Amino acid sequence: MTYYNEMYEGSRVREPYARLSQWVETMPADFRQMKQAEAEALFRRIGITFAVYGEGGDPDRLIPFDMMPRVFEQAEWRKLERGIKQRARALNAFLRDVYGRAEIVRAGRIPARLVYQNEAYEKAVVGVVPPRGVYSHIIGIDLVRTAKDQFFVLEDNCRTPSGVSYMLENREIMMRMFPGLFRGNRIEPVDQYPDLLRRTLESVAPAKCHDRPTCVILTPGHFNSAYYEHSFLANLMGVELVEGADLFVDGEFVYMRTTQGPKRVDVIYRRIDDPFLDPLCFRPDSMLGVPGLMDVYRSGGVSICSAPGAGVADDKAIYTFVPEMVRFYLGEEPLLQNVQTWALWKDDDYRYVMENLPDLVVKEVHGSGGYGMLVGPKSTREEIETFRAKIEANPGNYIAQPTLALSTCPTFVEEGLAPRHVDLRPYCLCGDRIELVPGGLTRVALREGSLVVNSSQGGGVKDTWVLSE
Amino acid sequence: MLSRTAANLFWMGRHLERADTAARLLDVGQRITLLPNTASGYQNEWNSLLQASGTANLFAEKYGEISQENIEEFIFFDRQNPSSVMSCIEKAREAGRIVRTALTSQVWDALNVAYQDLRRIGRMPRDKLDTGSLTDFTTSHTSTVRGAINATQLRNDGWHFMNLGYGLERADATARLLDVKYYVLLPRIEFVGSGLDTYQWQVILRALSAHRAYHWAYGGDITAGRVADFLILNGESPRSLITSLYEAVWNLEGLAKRYGETVPTNARDKAQEVLGRLQAHDIDMIFDEGLHEFLTWFIGEIGTISTLVHEDYLLGGS
Predict the structure, then answer these.
(1) Does residue A436 share a domain with residue A383?
(2) Quick one: pLDDT at residue B288?
(3) Where is the DUF403 domain (chain B) (predicted)?
């Protein structure tokens, strides 16, 4: 299999990487190790760490940071941007529809079963239309590239996509360490993201809010692996970071406990999952949520971002229908392509997948984080057979995709620069407007040949540049 | 400000000061054991230290035998001892991590570096460490954090809560360190006024980094009355009971002014009352009343003020 190398075409350096190539070539021998150590020290001092669930070990592990940036030209980015915004509009239209008249199901374009029997479908919010009809306010769309002009969407994240703090910190650290690089290249800034996010949240305040809206970020707490990100965003946005116990419901509103008594909250950017939001409505054993929150939400006393139930749009089974949504709601042709996907609950697909397991990638429908997946070409016979047994036990739980020839980006390894596979997650904001900062999170599979970029599976991150005209 | 944020800032201040106290306690003990002629050896001295910090039972249960190594392990490194330097720095850093948004990056940096360094020391073989350097390590890191707070934090309500924590904890700590003297001397009252007595007072001054300050303030010989005056009633002495309590009152008044009349002020009222009573004392009255009895009263009052702070501000008005 040949892979698209984003920096080199044969031995020729592609235009956007010209200056970076010079930078690398003129780099003194021990400079890189020195800078790498400096970057790590910076990350550790700032406190950017992540914990991997179930692995134990150091709770303050660093996510590996690669100093070699990934670069997009303006024209490339414009195309991506249009595709991402289009997809975000379609996803929100879909959510509005399935919690309303469900025209798309009536029209027979999506099977009713996939919507109504979906675990993420919340019957509790049927008929509730959130402000501006927006359900998912931050959409992370995972993209991979296979050729110069060929991008595929791997999955959509409509609930609470994480990682945006890395996008911001990677840039911050690169600018601090290599100011010269930024003077020489015209790189579009990304640090307006927190302001855009705050404006987005304020723009979806409930109608009952008459003053400037009070927004908060709701975190599961400081033991959560993404806590750093929650506090980082709260800080940059200038909003309170609350836990469930800091909030309470009184009458038709939600309040936070402050040193000056109760203060009303209008918009909650929640970083906890639906089942934990309100023990009176969902899981009664949840200690993370706020009793009575859903009643206030349903009567328009508070906005919740993303709206409860938004997860039904980013399910791996629903994913296959997103291009259909674009056509159905927007009357446009999708600008971004889906990866061909086989659903193992369909007999034909099942047969095909089982016959071709060594060539395919198989994922759990509800899985995430790179857990519970099989990368056929990278697996041993034994691993494949073990996985086959799991599929046979519960075919409805799996989808399969061809193994994509993920593009590579030069990455610093022990011996110098070497190509490693990358993906891209941009963060699209949906409120009164749809916004996208020029950049995103590039994840890189640091192990040679590996196609799994998740940080829990040995992945690292890179700064992502969009060059201006 | 969120009540939980305020609580974390308050306890961050308290735990940093408590870490400092633990290190100073270790220093006092270490210096007292260097004394040549104590009747029953150094074991008594260490025991009185543990009594004063309220951890004697915990120590006896876990270690039994009193030895320099055990004590050092217990007061400095032991996570099961809630007042150890390790426990306190960890708790302060955890509180800081929870309220990252309320701290400047300089303060977080100082706090995080203290924690990372402490973890590094915790992994070193113990025979490579000596008591003096452990104390210096702690006081230098806690001072750095304090300095960063002073230099960079906004003078808002969060600032008041942090400093309130510092003030109350310091008042409590100085009272307890003074009380060590009571425990050390009580069995051997014949030492009062002897060279040994003077040396022990000196040790306490040194532990509070107040040895030279004392000489500047009073000159002449070290006497029990003057040292006690310096550490209890002298408004220039930075760790005296009156200065520490005054700082707590100042911060409580700041909060009351900022928050206006809708928020209760029981903590401020109580603190003002205790400060008034302290100001009405002179050192002879305290010795007549009994130093230990006076300190017990004072420590109790600090506890009450702390409880009232929680009721007024940290429960969120519900």
Answers:
(1) no
(2) 86
(3) 1-314
Q: What is the pLDDT of residue B36?
A: 60
pLDDT tens digits, B46-72: 777 787 777 888 998 999 888 878 888
Residue where a domain stops, chosen among A349, A367, A402: A402
Residue A44 within any structural domain of the chain: yes
Q: What is the ipTM of this complex?
A: 0.78
Query: Is residue A13 helix, strand or coil?
Result: strand
Answer whether residue A286 is part of any domain.
no
Quote the domain boundaries for residue A397: 340-402
Six-digit token string for A419: 């190509």
**A260–B317 CB contact, under 8 Å:** yes
d(CA B25, CA B6): 28
Report how far apart, in Å, the C-alpha atoms of A24 and of each of A4, A73, A413, B119, B175 are. Answer: 21, 19, 13, 37, 62
Structural tokens at position B45? 């001295």
Task: Count structural domains, chain A.
Answer: 2
- Lowest average pLDDT, out of A249-253, A282-286, B168-172, goes to A282-286
Closest CB to B317 among A227, A241, A261? A261
Distance (Å) from the alpha carbon of B149 to chain A's nearest alpha carbon: 17
Write the pLDDT tens digit of every residue in A168-211.
999 999 998 898 889 877 899 999 999 999 999 999 999 999 99
| Mean pLDDT on B218-237 | 87
Identify which of B3, B112, B314 has the shortest CB distance to residue A47.
Answer: B112
Instruction: Tell me the one-letter amino acid at B2.
Output: L
User: What is the residue range of B14's domain?
Assistant: 3-314
Interface test with B, best of A215, A260, A263 (most B CBs within 10 A): A260
Domain total for chain B?
1
Q: Which of the four pLDDT bands, split at 50, 70 and 90, describes residue A56?
A: very low
User: Euclidean distance between the first and final Cα of chain A, in Å?
Assistant: 34
Does residue A128 share a domain with residue A18? yes
pLDDT band at residue A290 under the 50/70/90 scheme? very high
